[in-house]
Amino acid sequence: MNIISILQQAVVQAVEHLYNHQTEAEKVLVNATPPDFTGDYSVVVFPFVKLAGKAPDQVAAEIGKHVQDHVPQVHAHNVVKGFLNLEIDESYWTNFLDSVVDNQHFGEQPRNGQKVMVEFSSPNTNKPLHLGHIRNILLGWSCSRILDAAGFDVVKVQVINDRGVAICKSMVSWKKFGNGQTPENSGIKGDHLVGDYYVLFENKTKEEYEAWQQTNAAKIIFEEKHKDGQSEQAFFKEYKNKWFNDHSVLGAEVRETLLKWENGDPEVIALWKTMNQWVYSGFDKTYNDLGVSFDKLYYESETYLLGKDIVDEGLQKGVFYRKDDGSVWIDLTDAGHDHKVVLRADGTSVYITQDMGTSRIRYEEFQPSRMVYVVADEQNYHFTVLFETLKRLGEPYADGLYHLNYGLVELPTGRMKTREGTVVDADDLVEEVTRIATEQSSERGEIENFDPAEQQELMRIIGMGALKFFIIKVHPKKKMIFNPEESVDMQGQTGPYVQYSFVRINKLLQRAEIENIDLGLRHGYTGIQPQEKELLLALHQYPAVVREAAEAYDPSLIANFCYALAKAYHRFWHDVKIFQAESQEAKAFRLALSKSVGQVLDHGMNLLGIEMPSRM
To answer: Fewest CB atoms within 10 A around its CB: which of 84, 219, 282, 556?
Structure first.
């Protein structure tokens, strides 16, 4: 039991003894004492004032005395404006440091026997991974690692959207304009190559549409269908999708390709497999660069027909109803939603149908107690409806579903647009951040003595750390702007700033080893300094931060903790003498404390998928 739990239990006992009132330990608020006051932890006693019938200061004083008398870890107490401040005995902190200093797994929880499935990335095969995917991937990967540290068995999956109109557009484009180009004969990464043909298709479609608008057929349609006062420009902007489906030559070729795919046409299937494999190879390279892997891959081409059996079951249970045209719906108006189609009139699935089927297959295969979907907040409504539908169907896993939604990520130059070819590819972004890190390090002369291979590896670690930390430090639900220049700032709230703290500690420990300093001498140290106490309090908080991050599916809590710890250590390093300490015991204590901070920084950043360099 940690000190906060001990204090909560002690307050519960004090309230029962003093005021004959029972309360729950979880409801006792214990916070870190503000820096301006004496103490380590502060207890909020205002909830007990009314039942005690006394002034807040008197209640705090009575509870404080009882806690100090009955808890050996409490050295002293004081009361300020109704807040009870408790000072923890030094022996507790020295014992705590002993439990951390050589514990590589500090912060992790015992295995709890529960399994969590996390779905993330889930790209389309008509384009490369881009900046939006990076936020998705980093959230999914770091959540997976945090959940593992919190004691869960984690299964990492993705659904690859490898079928449909978008991939058919790339196929038609390559077939018409590709002239046999391949990743091998062009030197272009496979997912980039396919993405180029998707953009080319959109550009060719735009040209075709602009030319069609000048025809007599277009003018007749405008005259027949436009609204009073509506300009041609406004009308044709709205009409584009219908034109693509009813009049476009390229659109007709896409529909024909999709129909042939659905009918298993050998030539179309062969091209589909070839182009998808180009994309998969490209994805694998990007995932490898990001340090990400999956335990199971699902393909939409294999799952898009799933869920129809669940629809039949839902009809029998009365969860769904069938309209006169044969389509099947669910009425969710009593839950504040609307009527949602789950099967079209022609018997084909919609996305929610597929997701119902996929969720059941996953449950049958892995038996997870939770399933987490990392998908942008544009799909909030879809997942609200999906989860409510599965609950009404009585699916055994329905209460364990969670949508980890996240906000849009932009660059300082604005929003990305796939169809216009202005998307920032993930590979280009990784390369750009690494380039900036290299330039800045070279300007500071920090890597002059490194051999070329070591320079390259170090810049990779710093660049990737900058990219990952800058994105993860923002709460998932917030929109964000990713600024490559800011991400590598050594003085800001960045990955390189935290990495530098770790490197600084490593240098201290290397010197301590050369000088053969016995860290065991720390046990004779007394008189813990405020800067040392700040670090001990921060380290003590780490397991709770890991638990909270797992419960909230919020990796930004870990990122911000690591930054705060690194910042506190920089203050400690500047303000407190280590090798010139007043005694051998103080030197050993501060080195042991530094070692513990380094281990926790390494552990926390590792949960975010960020490597720590040996030197910078």
So the answer is: 219
Token pair for 606: 């590792």
Is residue 27 one of the residues assigned to a domain? yes
pTM of the entire predicted model: 0.92
Mean pLDDT of the 377-405 span: 97
Does 376 map to a domain? no
CA distance 362 to 543: 31
Return the C-alpha torsion angle 125, 126, 129, 133, nearest 10: -80
| Closest C-alpha among 542, 519, 547, 554 to residue 600 | 542
The yes-or-no verdict on residue 430 having pLDDT over 50 is yes
**Residue 562 belongs to some domain of the structure:** no
pLDDT beyond 60 at 385: yes
Domains: count for the chain: 2
Contacts of 142 (CB under 8 A, 6+ apart): 472, 555, 558, 607, 608, 609
Domain that includes residue 174, residue range: 164-285
Domain end, chosen from 285, 313, 332, is at 285
| 81-128 pLDDT per residue, tens | 889 999 999 999 999 999 999 999 999 999 999 999 999 999 999 989
- Residue 573, both tokens: 């390093």
* Residue 594, H or E segment: helix 584-607
In this structure, the answer to whether residues 174 and 268 fall within a common structural domain is yes
54 phi and psi, to 5 degrees? Answer: -135, 170
- Choice between 565 and 229, residue whose per-residue pLDDT is larger: 565
How many other CB atoms are there within 10 angstroms of residue 578's CB atom? Answer: 17
For residue 79, report the phi and psi dihedrals to the nearest 5 degrees.
-125, 130
Q: Taking 90 as the threshold, does the pLDDT of residue 422 lie above it? A: no
